[in-house]
Amino acid sequence: MIGYVTIGTNDMARGAKFYDELLAEIGASRFMEDDSFIAWAVKPDGSSLAITKAFDGNPATVGNGVMVAFAVESPAQVDALYAKAISLGASDEGAAGPRGDSFYAGYFRDLDGNKLNFFCLT
User: Fold this and answer.
1) DSSP per residue, 1-58
2) Which of 41, 53, 55, 82 has the greatest CB tally within 10 Å of its CB?
3) From CA 76, how far away is CA 16, in angstroms rounded?
4) Strand, helix or coil at 66?
5) Do 108 and 90 touch, CB atoms closer than 8 A?
């Protein structure tokens, strides 16, 4: 159902490097970009994540209560991706692990403070 998610950044080069390295782990790459916008997807006609400079010219800020969640195949993949995000400078918002009986997730904030997670159903 989700077509794409766009999150703000104040440093395109830093954000691009972070997401190039992190999203490569799930087979995503850049498929659309210009000077103030970059989008990644596994397939160009599938769901995507984009970073952008705020269109109104003001600094990008974090949306309170906003989170982007990436579905992956296994708890091992959640563990690896969460660890990769942290190694790239993300901050912990909830270490990878089980949440209830059938949900496994790792939560983090990117370099601009946007909250994301990788999750799978177990």
Assistant:
1) ---EEEEE-S-HHHHHHHHHHHHHTTT-EEEEEETTEEEEESSTTS-EEEEE--TTSS
2) 82
3) 25
4) coil
5) yes
Does residue 106 sit within a domain?
yes
pTM, full prediction:
0.91
**What is the number of structural domains in the chain?**
1
- CATH number assigned to the domain comprising residue 97: 3.10.180.10
Q: Is 44 exposed, middle or buried (0-12, 13-18, 19+ CB in 10 A)?
A: exposed
**Domain range for residue 80?**
4-54+67-121
Rounded Cα distance between 9 and 97, Å, is 28
Closest CA to 81 of 57, 46, 110: 110
Mean predicted confidence (pLDDT) in 48-70: 93
